Amino acid sequence: MAYLIQKESPDTFQMFPILGSEFNIGRLPESDLCLPEIPVSRKHCQIRREENSYILADLESLNGTTLNGEKVKTAELRDGDVIQVGSNTLVFHQPESRPARPGPEAQPSPAPLSSPPSAPSPPPPPRVEKAAPAPDPDLDWAEISRRVEEMNADDSKLVKPEFRNFYLLRDLCRVIIQANSEEDLLEVAMDGISRVFSFQVAGIFLRDPKAPDRLVPRCILGTNPKNPEISTTILKYAGEKNLVLLSTDARTDPRLLSGDSISGLGIHSALASPLWDGEENLGVIYLSTRKPECSYRESDLELLSALANLVASGIRKLKLREGMEKERLLRSHLEHYHSPEVIDLIMKQARDSEGKIPATVREITILFADIRNFTGLSERISPPEIAELLNEFFAYSTEAIFRHQGSLNKFLGDGLMAIFGAPLPLQNHAESAVRTALELIRETEKYCTRLPASKRFAIKIGINTGEVVVGSFGNPKRMEYTALGDEVNTASRLESTAEAGQILISEQTKDMIKDLFPTREIGYVPLRGKALRVKVFEVITESGRTPENPPLREYGV
After folding, report:
1. Which of 55, 130, 150, 357 is the most exposed place for a label (fewest CB within 10 A)?
2. What is the CB-side half-sphere exposure of residue 28 using CA atoms within 13 A?
3. Is-contact 421 362, C-beta < 8 A?
């Protein structure tokens, strides 16, 4: 064990044990040794333990770190070395290894151990030994030796109680930043509780997500986790009332007189604190003891409350991180099917409905598009060429759908389904669908001008308007936003009936677009799966052609 001795005045000093592998010195409150003065940098220097050696490393501080009168970047420490940080004089003391220092004429000592690969600082340079500094006359070395022996005889005196609590909370803060799971966080919290508090039973309880009124034991010490000897009265007090509880004598505490479990379990003193994250009660930390000499005090309650707040913040952080990851994955998935505006709306609805967009009945327009005679096309060209054609078709189709504020619902082999009016409300959803269809016809014609005759293709489109059910459907592992209902089937059947380069729409769609587009009434047409004939119209596409977009018949389709 090594120590830093801080001189406060000619005849007073404090001793700080160097615990762990890193001992940080600086102006930050979370430093192992906090020196709150301006000449000291926030992160000034660090003492690292490497096997049996201690290395002093300056952390690029503004005013530097001085060792025995000389500024250093890194150096191996020896017993009695004097470190100057700002106006603070610190003496390094390593009583168990006090070798005789070489005199002025001694040869340089061997190079010290190198820093491990993970250390941020380079290994300290070889240190030419000078004469050992004389024992500091301002320090009572006899008293220092006595304190060291006392500390070594009782580990609990290595750190004062107030510092021990600080170290506990500091370590928990670090875990909260680094923890990847609730299990890691709760395990460290329970370990800290077991090091600081006396108890017969200790437990951390979290609310059951499916039954928020029920507290589930997550970490239990001192009793059987399957049948814990826990006072439900104490647990409910903190869990339901959201109040901290300190009971020095639980058997006579008026707040707990209704609890038969307290006398039955022989509880003398109890502590409980809700896990409050600033918005909700996530659970309870519970402690109880049967020993009167171990009764809890006000300082215990303050420490447990601080620890509970840290645990609650850690749990909230993990849930937020988990939610952000789910949102990232969902947004990544939605980007393939929806425009940015639609994605933002879906994400807002999903957050308001705990990740699932509720099903609602809404009037929308549904568009189906498909490559005509895809089987014949597949026989003429190779699979890689088919993949290239489909990717190009889907690419310009998706852009057109997004441009007219629609949502690409799904790819269907050699076709696709799009919806207009959900989730983004559109008053002119039928018009948007028809404009998209005309653009798909034009873009397909334009694309085919760049292809040899063997690769050319045509598409056919069916559009219908009506009330459907829209929302998230599926299971928790895979949810999909889509539309369901007979009107969807009608749009699909219209597409199946259409010829190459043709856009067929239902009477409902025609009623909504009125005379915005030239149309031709085909009449009542039988559609597969429909008991009654459906009145069908064709949207005339010739008006949308330009000299650069010749009719399909010129392709020989």
Report:
1. 150
2. 13
3. yes
Cβ 139 vs Cβ 13: under 8 Å: yes
CA–chain centroid gap for 344, Å, is: 20
Q: State how far the alpha carbon of 140 is from the alpha carbons of 7, 77, 101, 289, in Å.
A: 11, 21, 21, 43
83 token code pair: 């470190």
For the chain, the distance separating the N- and C-terminal CA atoms, rounded to the nearest angstrom, is 88
Q: Mind listing the pLDDT tens digit for each residue in 423-457?
A: 888 899 999 999 999 999 999 999 999 999 999 99
Q: Please state the φ and ψ torsions of residue 516, each to the nearest 5 degrees.
A: -65, -30
Q: Which residues contact 3 (CB under 8 A, 6 or more apart)?
A: 15, 16, 17, 18, 92, 93, 94, 95, 148
Q: What is the largest CA-CA distance in the chain?
A: 114
- Kindly state the DSSP code that residue 542 receives in the 8-state scheme: G
Give this prediction's pTM: 0.45
338: DSSP letter: B
- State the alpha helices, DSSP H only, in 353-473: 374-380, 383-403, 429-448
489 or 262, higher pLDDT: 489
Return the DSSP state at 200: S
The confidence score (pLDDT) of residue 336 equals 63
Contact 478, 438 (CB under 8 A): no
Place of tokens 């009971």: 247
pLDDT the model gives residue 549: 38
Q: Residue 46 — left, alpha, or beta (φ > 0 → left; ψ -120 to 50 → alpha)?
A: beta
User: What ranges make up the beta strands (E) of 18-144?
Assistant: 22-26, 33-34, 45-50, 53-58, 65-67, 70-72, 74-76, 82-85, 88-93
Given a contact cutoff of 8 angstroms between Cβ atoms, the answer to whether 369 and 463 are in contact is: no
Q: Is 504 strand, coil or helix?
A: strand
Closest CA to 401 of 426, 373, 374: 426
Q: Contact 549/555 with Cβ under 8 angstroms?
A: no
- Do the Cβ atoms of 365 and 509 come closer than 8 Å? yes
Confidence class of residue 355 from pLDDT cuts 50, 70 and 90?
Answer: low
Q: What is the 3-state secondary structure (H, E, C) of 260-316?
A: HHHHHHCCCEEEEEEEECCCCEEEEEEEEECCHHHCCCHHHHHHHHHHHHHHHHHHH
- Choose from 171-175, 252-256, 536-540 the range with maximum mean pLDDT: 536-540
Token duo for residue 256: 């707990």
pLDDT bin (cut points 50, 70, 90) of residue 142 is low
Residue 390: predicted pLDDT: 93
Classify residue 6 by its DSSP letter.
E
Cβ atoms of 484 and 473 closer than 8 Å: yes
The C-alpha R_g of the chain, in whole angstroms, comes to 38
pLDDT, one tens digit per residue, over 21-57 is: 889 999 887 788 888 777 888 899 999 988 778 999 9
Nearest Cα neighbor of 282 from 215, 366, 183 is 215
